[in-house]
Design goal:
The complex is a heterodimer of chains A (387) and B (341). Helix content of chain A is 40%, strand content 20%. Chain A is α/β, with parallel strands linked by helices. In chain B, strand 11 and strand 12 form a beta hairpin. The chains are: A alpha/beta (387), B alpha/beta (341).
Chain lengths: 387, 341
């Protein structure tokens, strides 16, 4: 499995006070999200602004350290790579040593190992064999090299290509920088050869290497941004609204480019967008997010054709379709009000105050996920199996 | 019965800059009736916003109008019950203030930048109402509260004294709509009114605008790059490209029988969430640069159906069916291609 995200949480503290800062609360941007993604596949994260989809992307890219949860890439634990040493130690204690100590009180080591998923087994086997201190030392050894490798394997494309490309650098130097930094090319000439090759690959011309970003149109700039992400041949590319700033006709070009590139690199894509049409087209799997949690996730077609969660229903019915015959009366589907603040979230299911189907248990406890179809999960009490 | 509120004839807006002339709007004509909504679709640089700014009289130097008429009708200017039109292109700036805001109002894309952050909503609404209508401040405040209620702001009488930042994005856009409607204009121009908003909020705003249009009998122009929004709200659609109209028809015709290659290709490259599409067909190439364009079809460099004739002369904007106009020498004959019903 290329990417595994287990129970990811990211809270941003709200601080008050001038000299003595006090944390008065948390913005729970991401609150317990799990999903996984294989090579060559695309996972679409959909939601309205403030639902935490971009925070997930940035946390996986390790621009933020997570508050809780694990991120495995290529079955390797990358969660602690960018933490301070003390924090990393704490993470390893909490996620490995404490768990081992707790579990082995109840059952034997071999039983414990047997129940573990394959990707975690190696870590625990090493821990059992070598003891705590050696385990921590081993995990924290060569962090710099691990970070370098991680940065090479995980790349991002941002929404606005104008602000994500340095206006003072030529396309050639923008694209050759990662090659030289990671030692893929030995010198500038060698790097430029690779750059020219990838420029043609993303639909630009070889002579574009000497140009500056402002000399390109929006669509071309996004091609450069895609080229920069792809040039290191990463395994995982995080695409944060890569087509939102583009015109419709150009948007289709970029989507097509991304698809072609994916089959060439066999990379996994995490596609973050609020555009439901684009997500449906490009994704194999989809997660619909609301206030930091997924309300519904599963196979893309299954979700879009057979949506179950009241929020998904409202979202899909609110999104206009390019077909005037389908206009009709949408009023019944329009949800009133707006997304509540992620600081003071409603009790129980976060969507319950706006939900027209809400009944008694909804306001008490956040619902678990129920399987309602083939790889289709819904977090809603409406679908609780009747016992 | 059709009652034209606005008649635009062969309107052109050029900008003289050091490098040459930018022909942002290059011969646009249309008629808009009372209680009708026109959707103007186009990509960046297609001239859709400049057309509307020209109608609002907001074109400043180096921009100018070399040709064309904008005929606008309002009862205030009619004498003896006779219907009269005034040409907005000939109107001196100081007289334009009587039209702008009072008879033609505009809603912009970003509600944060179109409200002044330093003044309360009350200040901004009362100012507009008092400027255009001869009422006392108390009366203006009453009307403002009434309008806010109508656009769905809860506790309007208290919240009117809040500052713009205290409202959410959707609420801000509601306030901008309320200000736009405050003088009961004959024509409301909305420039991408929902682009900055989330889908569920967008649906609320579109629903609100539809309701208000029916209530006030306003003619509306929606400028957008989103064909889905147009399908949702417009009666008539005008597709623009490179400062020219490519196609104009009622909304059903545009989506079912897109005759211009550009419209046709545009509809084929929108990914949809309600239907599975195996493949997208992007339009190759880049949007045109409007600097000293040749007098040819602006879509020519990207058009797969281009003929020799296209390279020689510009096609006229011709009526191919009643109320269906197309500018093309080689229009798409058959209806929507595969994939969609």
């Amino acid at each position: 499995m290329l990417l595994r995200v287990n129970n990811l949480k990211k809270y941003f503290p709200i601080k008050h006070g001038f000299i003595v800062e006090k944390t008065v609360g948390y913005v729970k941007a991401v609150d317990g999200v799990s999903f996984s993604l294989d090579k060559g596949e695309t996972y679409g994260l959909v939601g309205e602004s403030g639902c935490g989809k971009t925070t997930i992307g940035k946390t996986i890219l390790r621009l933020y350290n997570q508050t809780d949860g694990e991120i495995f890439i290529d079955d390797k634990d990358t969660s602690y790579f960018f933490m301070k040493r003390s924090e990393a130690k704490e993470y390893l204690r909490k996620h490995y040593i404490d768990i081992l100590n707790k579990e082995t009180k109840k059952k034997s080591e071999s039983e414990f190992l047997r129940d573990l998923p394959e990707y975690k087994k190696t870590y625990f086997e090493f821990l059992i064999k070598n003891g705590e201190n050696k385990f921590i030392d081993f995990m924290l050894s060569d962090l710099k090299g691990k970070r370098m490798h991680f940065r090479r394997k995980v790349q991002i494309v941002f929404q606005d290509p104008t602000s994500s490309l340095n206006p003072r650098m030529t396309v050639g130097s923008i694209l050759s920088e990662p090659l030289l930094f990671h030692g893929i090319a030995k010198n500038k000439n060698e790097a430029f050869d690779i750059v020219k090759e990838i420029l043609v690959n993303v639909g630009l011309k070889k002579y574009h290497v000497d140009r500056y970003p402002h000399q390109f149109s929006g669509g071309q700039r996004q091609r450069i941004a895609v080229a920069r992400a792809a040039i290191l041949k990463p395994d995982l590319i995080i695409l944060d609204e890569p087509t939102s700033a583009l015109d419709v006709s150009v948007q289709a070009q970029i989507i097509k480019l991304l698809k072609d590139l994916q089959s060439e690199l066999n990379a996994g894509y995490l596609f973050i967008s609020h555009d439901l049409g684009v997500v449906r087209f490009i994704s194999n799997y989809v997660g619909i997010m609301y206030l930091g949690r997924m309300v519904e996730y599963g196979d893309s077609d299954e979700i879009f054709d057979n949506f179950k969660h009241p929020y998904t229903e409202a979202l899909l019915n609110a999104a206009p379709v390019p077909d005037p015959r389908k206009r009709r009366d949408r009023k019944q589907f329009i949800i009133k009000g707006q997304v509540p603040s992620p600081i003071n979230r409603p009790k129980g299911c976060f969507f319950s105050p706006r939900c027209k189907y809400a009944f008694e248990p909804c306001s008490k406890k956040y619902p678990p996920y129920y399987e309602v179809g083939n790889n289709h999960f819904v977090g809603c009490y409406k679908y609780e199996p009747k016992s | 019965m059709s009652e034209p509120v606005l008649i635009v004839e062969n309107l052109k807006t050029y900008f003289d800059i050091a490098e040459g002339t930018v022909k942002a709007v290059n011969g646009v004509s249309f008629t808009l009736n009372k209680n009708e909504s026109l959707g103007v679709v186009g990509e960046t640089g297609s001239g859709k916003s400049v057309t509307m700014k020209t109608i609002m009289g907001l074109i400043k130097k180096p921009g100018y109008i070399p040709e064309g008429k904008i005929l606008f009708h309002t009862d205030e200017f009619s004498k003896d019950g006779k219907k009269e039109y005034i040409d907005l292109t000939k109107l001196p700036p100081h007289q334009f203030t009587r039209i702008r805001g009072r008879h033609i109002a505009m809603i912009f894309q970003d509600p944060m930048t179109s409200l002044n952050p330093m003044y309360t909503v009350a200040d901004q609404m009362i100012e507009t109402i008092m400027y255009h209508q001869n009422v006392s401040e108390l009366e203006a405040r009453k009307r403002a509260i009434e309008l806010l209620r109508k656009v769905g702001i809860p506790n309007a009488d208290k919240r009117i004294d809040d500052y713009p930042f205290q409202f959410s994005g959707g609420q801000r856009q509601r306030i901008v709509i309320a200000i736009g409607l405050s003088c009961n204009p004959e024509l409301l121009i909305a420039d991408e009114p929902t682009t900055a908003l989330d889908v569920t909020i967008q649906a609320q705003i579109l629903e609100l605008m539809k309701d208000l249009q029916n209530e006030f009998n306003t003619a509306m122009i929606y400028i957008t790059h989103d064909l889905s929004v147009v399908a949702e709200i417009a009666d008539k659609v005008m597709v623009m490209y490179g400062g020219m109209q490519m196609e104009m028809a009622d909304v059903n015709t545009i989506f079912e029988k897109p005759t211009h290659p550009y419209t046709n290709m545009l509809l084929n490259c929108i990914p949809r969430h309600d239907a599975k599409k195996e493949d997208l067909e992007p339009i190759p190439g880049q949007p045109p640069i409007m600097l000293d364009p040749p007098n040819l079809c602006p879509f020519l460099p990207r058009c797969p159906r281009a003929t020799d004739r296209c390279r020689k002369e510009l096609a006229e904007f011709k009526e191919v069916e009643p109320e269906h106009f197309v500018r093309c020498w080689n229009p798409v004959a058959d209806t929507r291609m595969e994939g969609d019903k």
